[in-house]
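Shift notes (night). Ran 2-oxoglutarate and iron dependent oxygenase domain containing 2 while the centrifuge was going.
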Amino acid sequence: MATAGAPRRFCRCACFCSENLYVARYGLHLRFRGEQQLRRDYGPILRSRGCVSTKDFQELLAELEQEVERRRRLGQESAARKALIASSYHPARPEVYNLLQDAALAPEFLAVAQYSTSPGADFKGLLQRLETVSEEKRIYRVPVFTAPFCQALLEELDHFEQSDMPKGRPNTMNNYGVLLHELGLDEPLVVPLRERFLQPLMALLYPDCGGGQLDSHRAFVVKYAPGQDRELGCHYDNAELTLNVALGKAFTGGALYFGGFFQAPAALTEPLEVQHVVGQGVLHRGGQLHGARPLGTGERWNLVIWLRASAVRNRLCPMCCREPDLVDDEGFGDGFTREEPASVDVCALT
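Came back to this:
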């Protein structure tokens, strides 16, 4: 995560402010560089999805311009929120801010991590300790947290949500949830989870995707509830690999669904549905197309960790599929670096 000496400086790709702008009501991710480009590139498909009047188009244009401006200010505003929370927020469950202990982790997860670091550990042996959801799509599942830890974390997240502290959107598609680095949970919870447990596991599962060279992440909790976000459109993650852990609460519906890899033909043919199990985590490649079915009843909270390897993404930005145009950013940024770590093959598309 850091070299001997000064901490590594992470960056984002400049495409963050122009590519993959999500418009929920039309179910589209758009590239946006101005009105004429928008009309030229997306006019027919927008009309087919209901953007037909001048008013419709002007509202869309205003929404996209507002989103571009929000993204440009994101790093600075996030740092300001984090500082205010650190100085003024009083946790309800302060123990969740302690350094991650084995007692918070499911015995199955500890066994998987122990095996992954043992002499002679290999992919075949690891699969005997995981649930294979889809061999073809390379999707796996394993219990991650104990029920008491999930409950304590949920109580803390509930308390924060009800506080008057400022809150940032967890990502560009979800509107409700918590950014863990702003809440102060990156260093005690997510960093040790990535470095001690996930890296050796992912190195065996996804060596071709940088699984053994994970050096940053973006972690957030998403919330689905009546009157808030209820579902999530099809997308792929800005990550080499993803861990998605169901925290609770009581709910029906909201299953994950998976298509193919984002660059593959017929990527959404015969989607695979995966039901959430509280405490268990689903592991998949970031480029696997996926979404969430509509919530039926109750509330669903999930911890999502986008795992990133600069050795992979420094060669090709997964969001614009070009060599990244680097811009300095706060914290882990989007996982790019100006240094050149040892390179690996870009994740296979099958």
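DSSP finds eight helices and 18 strands in the chain. The chain has a mean pLDDT of 92.
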